[in-house]
């Protein structure tokens, strides 16, 4: 009792929990990876922890690894590796979990610097960490719960012959948490990948026990060329680490483990992976792990058969199927499994071709209900499946069950030779005579492009201009696709710029879309663009001198406008083309909008001769509050050719005047309303004329006492003086800006 107490007290004084030696270690390995930064490396330890028998309190928060020089085991440095993550190891088949096997990966890691002055010894270096204790339920070693684990990795110097030597250690893939079923062949992928492409060689070795113990579970790492090994149990050695008809073996090239065990138990083993470059060994890593062998229910592999639809004979992998071009391309697949309620996953694996939708399998999953049940699926090829050089297509049909601990499968290798289906070349043509056309200036050309495929395949039709873009030159053609045949119009309305290039070459290309093959045909069309001689059009008006003097408010008789049209200006604009080309006739006001000013004129298009009338009834607004305003309207004629000699212009000048008004007049100063029809009324026929600035508003007549006796807003007023006595009367005539006063005598 005192000894036990003393041991516990010593561990407490050392800062180590009495649970630190608790059995928990399944295995693991070091990994050293070169980083991008100079001299920087990542050192990691993958530690596999027993989740069923291990105590969580034995899980270390960090570890201390030590680097030694290999030639003399000289200490170099210690590295603290903190825990940086953990995860539970999965099974190949997740439904196959066992209450006896559960493993967790604990990852420790640290970045370190390996500089040449400290790591240049040609013999290399090794990193080591020792820890007790292994899993206490291990079957093939003695007193396993008291045996430690030594994790070990060798690495080369970082310089060789004065040149930096870059190397990363092999990287093992994460193992599965699978178990072995007795008397059932078991395969376990245990290989590594080397980032530098170095050669890897694998061998089974006796695991290191090291110097740790239950008394000193973490004794501190020691340099050694001969670490203590675990002691195998009776009848166990490196040739029979897991006993059975086929003891545990490792493939020296791939690292794949194979075994057929006949005794239940938990077996520990160690695989040494040696790294060679140019046939020189430069590194070593040892990985320890455990496998559980259980007496589990028997799982038989499924079976797969195939036959052509409608036939009873099954296909043999020794045969080669020959499928003619018009044969059906579907096959019946029959899957069986002696186990009840067996879930099967079905798949295809091409061997010498890429599938790309050539072949399909449906359905790809099913359930077998026992030895008398059969799962049927359909395998179908598309019409695009073809063989070349008389070599068959090879593919595998795979049936995979979900048995434990790992799925079992059956694979049927199929060889099919497809006789090619004839594929004749498509054709393309046009209805353009001799596939040549000459275009004068901007006259258009139109023709049809016809493509056909005698086999009825899908085809595409496209047009490509040689050295130019069709759309940029005003050419219209829509590339398209169809099955069997397609007709597409080509239209060209040449813009004037096309006259700068005398000819255009266009290729019309048809391609068939028969699977991966392609056949095509091309027809070429030549278009020539010529510029013919051209005389410019002419434009004129029926106005003398193309000038209009217009006085607002003048009557027809008094108007100074050369054509007696009253208060409106009307004339015709005539454009003519001696070459009988199409003409555009347009009119534009210089610096003003014609329609906003009330001018009426329509642009027109015609052939050879175009006439468009102009009309305008100016009002005071045209004067813009001045006594006179001038307007210039330009009329243009342009023929629809590309000739630079295709324009003519005529300009009409409008001079708009306000009437000048004479503000002197001599009204009668007496009138005699006696019915003799002579001077019976007071009226003023010669009142000043209205203009835009001054207009007659009204007249008022008053007696001598200032009483209003007459009023009128008509400039043609007539006052008869009815009921008013003889006498003098005063009048007032009001204009917009002026007022006139006078008197008149009424005599009876």
Summarize the structure.
This protein is mainly beta. The chain starts with a helix and ends with a strand.
Can you give a write-up of this model?
The protein is built from 1 helix and 49 strands. The model is unreliable at 1-21 and 555-566 (pLDDT under 50). By secondary structure, the protein is mainly β. It is elongated, with a radius of gyration of 56 Å. The strands form 11 sheets. Strands 1, 2, 3, 4, 5, 6, 7, 11, 14, 17 and 18 form an 11-stranded mixed sheet that branches. It has a 5-stranded mixed sheet with strand order 20-27-26-22-24, with no helix packed on it.
Task: Describe the protein's topology.
Elements: H1 2-13, E1 25-34, E2 40-50, E3 62-69, E4 74-88, E5 103-113, E6 125-132, E7 148-155, E8 159-160, E9 163-164, E10 171-172, E11 180-181, E12 186-188, E13 192-193, E14 199-205, E15 246-250, E16 257-260, E17 265-277, E18 280-294, E19 303-308, E20 321-323, E21 330-336, E22 342-350, E23 359-362, E24 365-368, E25 375-381, E26 393-401, E27 409-418, E28 427-430, E29 436-440, E30 445-452, E31 458-465, E32 475-476, E33 480-483, E34 485-492, E35 503-512, E36 520-530, E37 538-541, E38 547-552, E39 569-576, E40 582-589, E41 604-607, E42 609-616, E43 628-639, E44 647-658, E45 670-671, E46 696-702, E47 708-712, E48 727-735, E49 739-746
Average per-residue pLDDT, rounded, comes to 88
Shape: elongated
User: Helices and strands: which structural class?
Assistant: mainly beta
Count the strands? Answer: 49
Task: Describe the structure using short key phrases.
mainly beta; eleven-stranded mixed sheet; five-stranded mixed sheet; 2% helix
